[in-house]
Amino acid sequence: MPSDEIEALKDGGWREIAAIDAALERGEIDEDGWHHAMAGLVVPAYLAAETPWGQSGKSGDEALWKEGRSHIADAIDRDGMFLDVGCASGYLMECIVGWSSHRVEPYGLEIAPELAALARSRLPRWADRIFVGNALTWNAPRRFDFVRTGLEYVPPPRRPDLVTHLLEFGDRLIVGSFNEEVEERALERAVESWGFAIAGRSERAHRDPRIVRRVFWIDS
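RE: above sequence
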């Protein structure tokens, strides 16, 4: 089993998240309760952050944000519309335009109204492109060339459903960036076990050599 130290490198809130997942599994909370509990962890922390990357869940300085996220742009192989699921402050929407060598039109989806409001206030030129909704059930107003998500945005049993739903309106689904142990590809293996083929991947070294930052993508 991975050590607590390794788990913390993957996700600093792993203990709290594991407790919420366990409560759902035991039937102590339902799916709405899971989302409410996760919002209780995420929303206050993001709103209290003083930087746009901190408001999107990344501690440290801007260089660390770029180090941890910029290889998402490796999945963008042409001009197109890009939807960031779980857009929080909208900072990835901003950055992907500069990181990609292609012309990207960014959009955002956020389940927490407070974070969507923050993104709209930060990015008034894109305010009408930032939507509020649960990615599992949201009805997209258009088709997107690229949709980026984290699988941790929904309860573990619903992650295959999330992939299926997002591929209904996205030509390419980008998963990540996430931290994983170097010798593992656990998330890819899980996605493949659900019947999806991995179309490509990108990774960056982590400052801890035991961990790697990964992105992979699935084409519809």
